[in-house]
Amino acid sequence: RESVLERSVGREGSGPNEFREFSFLQVVAESVWVYDRLNQRISVLDRAGEFARLIPLGALSSEGLVFGVGVFADGSILLQRNEPGTAQPGLHRRYRRAFVLHAAGSISELGRFFIGEAYWQAVGEDVVDAGRPFGRRGLTAVTGKEWFYSGGDEYRVEQYDMAGRLRGVYS
User: What is the reported pLDDT for 23?
Assistant: First the structure.
């Protein structure tokens, strides 16, 4: 059986109903939330793909690029921001600050979390992140009214509520 395209939504760009890079797509109730990292915003569409509203994150990125992680059932959004790190050669652990942008507009800081290892290497007069293909990575997922985190260096998953309170540990 052959697949058939039923509809296409949006296009490339920076205007309304335009996207530059999907970093997550999540269905919450009757809405589809699309985080566009390069445009620093979240577009909310209805289930038919019609544009409903835009949530700009640009004002939050004054201290550094904001990364969308996921959407809670009430429309609050789990976000992360990189902590400044060193650009010296060698192996380094990287961290992000996690926070919640509540549906009402307030922001709650949740803490500092490991996101991965980076190997910085001298290239000419510069130092670049050469990556670490088999390095540890921190992973985060959002569902309902809670979120889960694993630092990747232990066989452990932590369960948190929206306020950042630890509710369970699975190892």
Answer: 86
